[in-house]
Amino acid sequence: MEVFRIRGGSPLRGTVTVSGSKNAALPMFAATLLSEEPSVLENVPDLSDVRFMAEILQHLGAKVERLGPTGWRITPSSIDHRAPYDLVRKMRASVCLLGPLVGRLRKAVIPLPGGCVIGQRPIDLHLKAISKLGAKATIREGDVYIDGSTLKGGSMFLGGRQGSTVTGTANAIMAAVLAPGSTRIESAACEPEILDLCRMLQGMGARMDGIGSHILTIEGVDALRGCRHQVIPDRIEAGTYCIAAAITDGEVRVEGARTEHLGAFADKMEQAGVELKADGADAVLARRHPDGLCSLEIITLPYPGFPTDLQAQACALACVSPGLSILTERIYPNRFMHVPELLRMGADVSIEGSSAIVRGVSCLSGAPVMASDLRASAALILAGLAAKGDTWVQRIYHLDRGYEHFDEKLTQLGAEVERLPESALPQAAQNEAVS
Length: 435
Ligand code: EPZ
Fold this sequence. Notes:
Elements: E1 2-7, E2 13-17, H1 22-31, E3 39-42, H2 48-60, E4 63-66, E5 72-75, H3 85-88, H4 98-105, E6 107-111, H5 124-132, E7 136-140, E8 143-147, E9 155-157, H6 166-176, E10 182-186, H7 192-203, E11 207-209, E12 215-219, E13 228-230, H8 235-247, E14 251-255, H9 263-271, E15 274-278, E16 283-288, E17 297-299, H10 311-319, E18 324-328, H11 338-344, E19 348-352, E20 355-359, E21 368-370, H12 374-386, E22 390-394, H13 397-400, H14 406-412, E23 416-421, H15 427-434
Parallel strand pairs: 2-14, 3-13, 9-10, 17-18, 21-22
Antiparallel strand pairs: 1-22, 1-23, 3-5, 4-5, 6-8, 7-8, 10-12, 11-12, 14-16, 15-16, 18-20, 19-20
The structure holds ligand EPZ.
């Protein structure tokens, strides 16, 4: 396993280019299965989750070709309906295979995705969507068996206790585009990644209205053609670099950041004393307000609310912002695995229910810390960039799932970040890691 050694204290300056969105690309890989013709995806981020999804499609029988660092061609001329347990269990996003397999083959066998450190991750709404389209789902020995022989258009309400479901909406859409008749999806997720998926499906010949809204109507067609689609930039990566600029008191031009995707985030950053100035349609200049950082109050919500995927990073910023900040999770109430590690760096955070109460400190101190999930890893790295001394972030394979070349991009901005083998850890940290 590898670790990051981060020597804190350097203000980040320069330009960073945001990669394609992981959470747009993963359902799009699945969507290519809806046609037997080849599809080409461009601006795909070079991430372990993406390579993993490609491996799963290959296992299903699709021909998968890499076209350079950010391009893929997928030719699913003949595919199997069974997703492999040993692959699917490692990546929850593979649940997105459900919709396309049912839409194209009228049947699917998908292992139930387990939970993960950020929460339970149920799929009841996914199964509700499929059943509203006339398919029958049975769960046996940890697998979901779907009989979609009677698939047809239908109406559904996809809101759950925490609001819409992003990949649940993706599955509903991908099954409905090939279901005979009309489908109406209420309380559909309207994240930019879902909008981008709909655009890709339209490029394949799908017929739908209401794209970008909470109510989608879809007219099923008999077959879809292949397409060529460019993945949108990753708004979560963009937000992460904006916070990196602010937490190090630097100034970073984040290229590829679409201001229309950053609404709630930009609003909260303004409250926190972070200036995000649009620089053209596809770039943002991020830096601290001249008056400095201040406390912030965040509640994570489905889009267009503040994204849960930026909560941990905002928590790291709050740790060095004067005053009392409150960050409340309405999507994943336990998504605070980064907090115990931030405490090791001298942060002052307490968890009350689904909220983190953060009292800003003047300076964090570097320490060996343990990454637990993708966004927690990013939060610990941001904290390390601001801390005095060296921070060793272990298990950075979590980070590599969702951030392309994070260490290289940070180094280009002037950060002192090194990717090292675990053996480079200071002895004390190695002892702790083993205990
Ligand atoms: C997507 O996950 C993202 N992943 C997550 O990003 C993101 O945090 C999440 O949406 C919320 O924005 C991908 O797009 C690959 P949900 P998803 O279904 O679709 C509950 C990252 O860091 N729910 O929108 O799995 C669920 O428990 C990852 O990039 C049900 O109750 O999330 C949660 O509380 C992490 N029943 C809420 O809804 C269901 O059937 C939102 O979940 C489905 C979900």
